[in-house]
Amino acid sequence: MPVISFAPETGVWLLCTPRTSYALRIDETGAPCHLAWGPRLTLEEAEEFATPPAPHPSSFEGRPPVGDELPVDGGARYGTPSLQVRFADGTRAFEWQATGHRVHEPAPGSTELALEFRDRHYALEITLHYRVHDDSDAVERWSVLRNTGEEAVTLLRADSAAWTLPARDDYRLSHVTGQWSAETQLHRDRVPFGETVLTSRRGITSHHANPWVMLDAGGATEEHGQVWCAALAWSGGWRVTVQRTPDGRAGLTGGAGHDGMTQPLAPGEEFTTPQYVGLYTDGGFGEASRAWHAYVLGHVLPHPEETRPVLYNSWEATGFDVDEGNQLRLAARAAALGAELYVMDDGWYGARRGEGAGLGDWTPSPDRFPEGLAPLVREVHRLGMGFGLWVEPEMVNPDSDLYRQHPDWVLHFPHRTRTELRSQLVLNFARRDVADWAYGWLTRLVGDHGIDFLKWDMNRALSEAGWPDRADGTERVRTAYVHRLYDVIDRLRADHPGLRIEACSGGGGRVDLGMLSRTDQAWASDNTDAADRVLIQHGYGQIYPARTMAAWVTDVPNPLTARSVPLRFRFHVAMAGVLGLGGDLTRWTDEELAEGAALVAEYKRVRHLVQHGTLHRPRGPVDDGPAAVQYTAADGSEALLLAWQRAPRHGAAHPPLRLAGLDPSARYRDARTGAVHSATVLSDYGLRPELPRGDWASLAVHLVRVP
């Protein structure tokens, strides 16, 4: 079956992925309308959906609020518009006129459809793009708008795409909410009739929500049921609106920017929306997660084939009290523990002694590093580790040489207070001179010192997002900021192909497909409490793979929660992602160092499963019982089970953990105990892990297929 096929007689387009189909057509009014999204169809079967529209039952109804490929503001449309424009004469409606189409292969294994339209009267063109891949069920969508006239056009709303779901008796919405240090808390709620809006008005992806949603008919489980999902590849403010209509249909639309934002489109100018990626599965939430992980690894990450190293980060050991001596001592202990990458965090530059000064002055403090960073970098490399550095290029303290020289470089409005959060202001990366300045010192820093890794942080939301130097600056700044940010990172990586970057925004404030497409991993949360991390990591893993999720083992009592849990429990939680170490190793006892070194070595033996295997969730963190994740090799030859339990409750049920993805005809040996299990028993009847007695019990079970 062709990947993209067309029936000229009915105007039906059919896009096929390995297991799903997506069908649409241009209807009698010239508007692109949705037909089907779900299990595989033939072109002839897809044409069965191309029925004439039903007449309006009354003069109050108008066009159905969901069902258009990109609902516009105009005519008898009363649903949430994906596209709203204002022309120079004040007209706000848009009327579709099809002008052509293109089908091509942008890369081997990928096929793209471009549907071309223009407004029937005004000089505005729009192209709807669809891309599918031979190895993924994801459908990538985005739009390109072009002003071909001589007068300005204002985009009041320009979403990337709208998605329509079939009618069902009920619908359930899965999404994540949270706040700083409590990100990605998973919620599954019944979709109410009307509109449900998820958004970030903070100028970043945000800790409070993430631009992805999953919808099911209310009965999907981890391993069964139809699930439709979509995720936006954008690292600024965003809005997703989910609609449920009285006739039982559901749909959603999403794109960059929150309510009230506008985007000028000057004569001759073109605006491209970020990608909005959709995915359907009939294998439940678990299969949806696995499909997303495979998509991110196959089509988003810049170096998915790499195995991420075990890193050590100095923040929780030294805070801002950074100098060459304490970093050398920590580096020696980190290397002995088995770390492969040493990262020096905040406090190494300018007058930085706390949150109140120094941001923007990116040269090593001479009193702390008399000979610069070179001696420390050399020693870290001699110890066999890569060298990484914390940076926050988008920020400035008012108490800095940079701000005193360039107070106009920050986001601000004339005659308005410049709101400081964490004693800092946001540099206006939308300005080319600011972006070029950031790129310049970053590329020199990396090149002059042989830096292998950057932890790129961003520790506050945007406010006073103005650009007074441009008449239309306030309308352009939020979008231009993100594009210039992307450009700085892209240029930096082009200069230094060996450089690897971790995305961070006070933890998980900027985790999205757009940022992951140009970084190698993400800091999911500033909260390193292992008990809290189980929940945070559960929500993170719904869309984003473990290969991207940095997770640290830090000291107890935890600085945020004051909770103390055993070192082994902390390691087993962090081993579910990219393992990192973040405690003050100079205070670890010999016993803790020995246990930590053994657990680091254990992680290295199984990290190929965590970072490159498939994820199953035998039991989520739903109650006082054990929670567990499983990572399995693609060929079923190995599996890793990580299980955690906060506290046992006498008399509580202890259900077995049923494993998945194993070779059904094989037997597996527990690498630790030597016990041999049948795959049939492990999959159909389950494993009862022998968790240690007492509070904060955890276990790692590495199963290897018996030859």
From TrEMBL:
Domain of life: Bacteria
Keyword Nucleus annotated: no
Enzyme Commission no: 3.2.1.22
Class in the EC hierarchy, top level: hydrolase
Record domain Glycosyl hydrolase family 36 N-terminal: where: 30-259
Pfam family, one: Glyco_hydro_36C
Alphabetical list of InterPro entries matching this protein: Aldolase_TIM (IPR013785), Alpga-gal_N_sf (IPR038417), Alpha-glycosidase_related (IPR050985), GH (IPR017853), Glyco_hydro_36 (IPR002252), Glyco_hydro_36_C (IPR031705), Glyco_hydro_36_N (IPR031704), Glyco_hydro_b (IPR013780)
Domain Glycosyl hydrolase family 36 C-terminal: 627-703
Reaction(s) the record says it catalyses: Hydrolysis of terminal, non-reducing alpha-D-galactose residues in alpha-D-galactosides, including galactose oligosaccharides, galactomannans and galactolipids
UniProtKB keywords: Glycosidase, Hydrolase
Record-stated family: Belongs to the glycosyl hydrolase.
Protein name: Alpha-galactosidase
